[in-house]
Predict the 3D structure of the following.
Amino acid sequence: MTSATLSPALAPARRLGVAAGLRHTFTLAWRSLVQIKHNPMELLDLSIQPVMFVLLFTYVFGPAIAGSSGEYLTFMLPGIMVQNALFATMTTGFGLNNDLTKGVFDRLRALPIARWAPLAGRILADTVKQAWSIALLLGVGSILGFRVGNGVLGVVGAFALLLAFTLAASWISVLVGVLVSEPDKVQIFGFMVIFPLTFTSNIFVPTDRMPGWLQNWVEVNPVTVVADALRGLLVGGPVAGPVLQTLLWGAGIAVIFAPLAVRGLRRRV
Amino acid sequence: MDHAIRAEGLVRRFGATTALAGVDLAVPTGTVFGLLGPNGAGKTTAVRVLATLLRADEGHATVGGFDVVRDAHRVRQLIGLTGQYASVDETLTGAENLLLIGRLLGLSRADAKQRGRQLLDDFGLSDAADRAVKTFSGGMRRRLDLAASLVGRPQVLFLDEPTTGLDPRSRNDLWDVVRTLVADGVTVLLTTQYLEEADQLAGEIAVVDHGRVIAQGTPEELKAKTGGQTLTVRPADVADLGTVVAIAAEVAGVTPEVAQTAVTVAVNDARVLPVMVSRLDAAEIPVAELALRGASLDEVFLSLTGHRAEDAPADTDLERTPA
């Protein structure tokens, strides 16, 4: 085969630049977000469940746990933001597994695009969805009486910290998405792990109200750590310690799970 | 000769399974090459290696002159891929799918939309352009898959079982598209389980089984080798069986087989049928069944593996086939 059969305009480039890779990432993120337009259920999933949780916990459990709904909302809202964010990370693994099993991923890999763009595009789109959920929870919380204690800076900080943590946690979701045979199993994993993990933290019930043996776990549970950091940023109280711990947890999760997920993906395709 | 696709000694194992056990291919530029074989023969694995989706454990391959591993990015700029596993996004509309691929290939938004509209039009999908793909019929879905692989005007197109599960009309439409593409100079590597499909489209066919090419040649050569068609005669009276065998042997020029009360013989020329009828008539033999049908993939395989049992390499067998 000689270059004579290729028209000069089509002579293929040997490599891709980072700018091109970012462009591919944005295009693929667009693809994941435009899906919402055709599947409004996904937006409802993203919105109704967290709002329902806030309402139920505030009015059903609030008076029993904290004495009043208002006080409980202040305590619980930062925590429920963490729980919701963790559940939402499962979207990444679900979507990835869907692409892998349906063949979309192979279609993309056969295109001359950056190797990392399909995954990066999905994660970017899911981060946008996360930001939407966080804003929604804060908005609904405000309507119900949640008051921000640290001003705009606290809100921006809470947003950034939670997004950073979910970005790290989404590598666990990617790993699950790569390992399981069908998308629904990602959801099942999410429920099996995230439910107990988030309920055995201090996001709904203060640590000292739990049995002694459980308190030890609750204190080291990373969900507790992230919830404390968000409380500090949004409501008030210690900030530096929990924020630092959250960042360390995030870094640790990413360092362990990102390589595993990438290796798993390479093996799968 | 100029080869758009070349593969030498491709080996690929999945655990204990050997999907490719040393495959050599050479596809001349601007032709259709058919990989024919049953499920699990290794056809899809071969396509995935050539389309840069999978690395071979041994051997190497080039597409458009570029190594599929070292120059994978260049290969990807030349190829289009359509198969059961390389799919479009079901949740997007047809137009959005093509727009997505156009954008990923570096077209401006306007150009990508324009290219998408043109392809949807070419494939008779304009009316469904703004419907989610999951509402498409099987035939529409395949056409969109093919359109998606053509957005970048590929020079080499991989079609992995493009018509499996399609009704005859959709299948014929798709065949026409392939013929048009080849007329425009595109090289096509087609995998199929259907001898007829390979016969209709491919200039050259490689028969694949257990990860090996067990025979290769033009459709005519393969059909000659395997008995392109099978003639079955069942005399009404079993006593006539011997006479029928003698007539069949004489007319077809090869030894017939007798199974229970029927005589079957491989024929390479459809004119055998009228000759057979007149000979049976002249001999005044009443016939309970008389049928001429095309060789199925099963028969091709039976025939080819039969030759292998004689310890002769399948490829050289082709040259010894009586014409």
In short: Chain A touches chain B at residues 1-3, 5-6, 10, 12-16, 20, 24, 27-28, 30-31, 34-35, 38-39, 102-104, 106-113, 269 (CB under 8 Å). Residues 69-102 of chain A form the longest helix (34 residues). Residues 1-9 of chain A have pLDDT under 50 and may be disordered. The radius of gyration of chain A is 21 Å.
